[in-house]
Amino acid sequence: MGKRIGLLGGMSATSSQLYYAELCRLTQAHCGGLTSPDLILRSLDFEPIEQWMRAGEWDQIGNLLIREAKMLESAGAEVIALATNTMHKVAESVQAHLTVPFVHIAEATAASLVAEGHRRPGLIATKFTMEQSFYTDRLAANGLETIVPDEAARGLINDIIFTELCKGLVTKESQATYMRVAANLAFDGADSLILGCTEVGLILNAGNSPVPVFDTTTIHCGAIIDAAFS
User: Fold this and answer.
1) Number of H helices, E strands in the chain
2) What phi, psi does 41 have (nearest 5°)?
3) Which long-range contacts (CB under 8 A, 24 or more apart) does 146-153 make?
4) Residues facing residue 213 across a β-bridge
5) What 3-state class would DSSP assign to 82?
6) The whole model's pTM is what?
7) What is the DSSP letter of 44?
C-alpha cells in the first residue's frame, strides 16, 4: 500500500490533467490489478495566480501555496508535490512549512539528467523559470550547465505557454517555433533538452527534438510514485 499523495495543481489545469493521467499509469504499472493512486488533488484557480506572477507578487503566491499545501497535509497527504515548474520559485518556503516529504521537480529532473550522463541541458520553460535562478541553481548544484534560448525566443516560448498550452491548445505554427528553438539550443551546445514547463510535452518530444528530451512532467510523476511506494 502506497503513501497518500497530495498534489497541488491547477497551474495550469492542463498540467494537472497530464499529472493525474501519468500518476494513474505509473501506479497501474507498479501495482497491477485495478490499482489507482491514493491521491488528493487540490486544483487552484490559475487566473489570479497568473496575475500575481505578472505583477511580481510572489509573496502572495507563496502564502497561498503554503496554506494549501498545509491543508493537503492536514487531509492526510503523506507525500506532497507541486504540479508545476514555475511555482517551484516558492518551493523552499512551502517545504519549510511541511512535516511530510516534498518532491521537488528540479531535483528529480537533475537526477534523471545526471543518471543519463548529460551535462549541458537546454531549457524550454516560462520566462520566470528560464530567466530567474530558482530553477537553474538547482540544476547547477547537481553539476549541470543550463543553456537558455535568446531573449526573443524566450518571449515567444512564454507567450505560447500562457496563450495556448495552458489552455490545452496545440498548433503546428507553435510546434514549429519550439522545434526551431530546440534546434538552436542544440547548435549552441546543448546535449539534452529539458521540457521545463509541464505543458511543453504537448508539442515537443523525442520524435521532434534533435537531442534527448527530459519531460519534467513524466520525470516528476515518476519521482512522486517512487516516494509514495518507498
Assistant:
1) 10, 6
2) -105, 120
3) 146/120, 146/121, 146/122, 146/194, 147/120, 147/121, 147/122, 147/123, 147/185, 147/188, 147/189, 147/190, 148/122, 148/123, 149/122, 149/124, 149/181, 149/184, 149/185, 150/184, 153/181, 153/184
4) 193
5) strand
6) 0.95
7) P
Q: Rounded mean pLDDT of 78-102?
A: 97
CA distances from 88 to 25, 137, 206, 229 (A): 24, 12, 25, 23
* Domains present along the chain, CATH in parentheses: 5-104+218-228 (3.40.50.1860), 106-215 (3.40.50.1860)
Give the amino acid at 154. R
Average pLDDT, the chain: 96
Tens-place pLDDT, residues 152-197? 999 999 999 999 999 999 999 999 999 999 999 999 999 999 999 9
- Residues classed as catalytic: 84, 197
At 74, the amino acid letter reads S
